[in-house]
Design goal:
It comes from Phytobacter palmae. With 302 residues, the protein is of the alpha/beta class. The protein contains nine helices and 13 strands. The strands form three sheets. The protein has an eight-stranded parallel sheet. A three-stranded antiparallel sheet has the order 1-2-3, with no helix packed on it. Helix 7 packs parallel to helix 8. The radius of gyration is 19 Å and the shape is globular. The protein starts with a helix and ends with a helix. The model has no long low-confidence stretch (mean pLDDT 93).
Length: 302
């Protein structure tokens, strides 16, 4: 039946709407004037969502963003002050015995498909606010609805919004020109940093870029990042083994997309009076972009 509706959708909509074909007709939404999805109904049932508008500017101070590079293994998270909130991405939940996660971001559908063990642990944690896309919410509700205890925040790729046409790469600037929260790179119209995630989030090949936009929107002044290695892609992530390692698609994107995007993010965040501290001393991300400081030194010198 799903393939039938998909075919109906394809033949009754322009190709620019193709990214919605797996959502229709099961997903019904309402948008607020701010642009965010304010109400969601999936397969006939309402889905409670945390309002993005209520999250805007709701935080301040420091937050720890736990990425998943191998350098994570060298950090003693017991030294992390208890009052610093922690955001995880993908498999970082493996640190849950060492840190208390309150925020989480997963936008990789392959991760939903291949690491159900971690997904189920995250959604069963009532302390967590999980930011994910509609495709992620659909996978959770279709597979683990009875286990869902975490809160959900629905986020969208700014160029692939639900029931709106895809924004082509060469038209991104024109589509958002004049909308100040969408901060485009002056030299490239395929790199942008959104300071208002209600209008969408821009991708740069890594979930960390999504997380930076979310945390900036929430109002955090200092974003501390562990595991932001961006090198040694042949090695397992800190929570993986050689046997269960998922493929990484970052290596081919690092030089052309990821690094220029991080540099752009650093400029925009500086304008917003927020900074990033990179705890990965051997990270490929230059110190001129995100300041490198060892985890121990940062907290020993407070």
């Amino acid at each position: 039946m799903g393939s039938f509706f998909k075919q109906v959708y394809r033949y009754t909509r322009p190709r620019s709407f193709r990214h919605n074909e797996n959502l229709w007709p099961w997903t019904k939404i309402q948008r607020a004037q701010s642009g965010e999805i304010s109400a969601l109904n999936y397969k006939g049932s309402p889905v409670p969502l945390v309002s993005l508008s209520e999250l805007k500017g709701s935080e301040q101070g420091e937050v720890l963003l736990t990425a998943t590079g191998p350098s994570t293994r060298s950090i003693d998270f017991k030294k992390l002050p208890k009052d610093i909130p922690v955001m995880g991405v993908n498999g970082a939940y493996s640190l849950s015995l060492e840190v208390s996660f309150s925020l989480y971001v997963i936008v990789d559908m392959e991760f939903f498909d291949k690491r159900s063990d971690i997904i189920r642990a995250i959604i069963a944690d009532s302390r967590i606010l999980l930011f994910t896309t509609m495709h992620g919410i659909a996978k959770i509700l279709d597979r683990y609805a009875a286990e869902l205890k975490c809160r959900l925040a629905l986020i969208e790729d700014a160029c692939y919004k639900i029931y709106q046409p895809k924004v082509p790469q060469d038209q991104k600037w024109e589509a958002y020109n004049g909308n100040s929260p969408m901060r485009f790179c002056e030299k490239r119209n395929d790199i942008c940093f959104s300071t208002d995630i209600r209008l969408g989030i821009f991708d740069a090949g890594t979930v960390v870029y999504w997380a930076l936009q979310i945390l900036t929107f929430m109002g955090f002044n200092t974003i501390l990042i562990s595991g932001l290695d961006m090198n040694n892609f042949h090695q397992p992530r800190f929570y993986e083994t050689a046997e269960n390692k998922l493929p990484s698609y970052l290596e081919t994107k690092v030089d052309n997309l990821v690094m220029p995007s991080f540099a752009h993010a650093a400029r925009i965040m500086k304008e917003n009076k927020s900074t990033v501290v990179n705890f990965s001393l051997d990270s490929a991300v230059p110190d001129a972009v995100f300041t490198k400081v060892s985890f121990d030194d940062y907290f020993n010198n407070r």
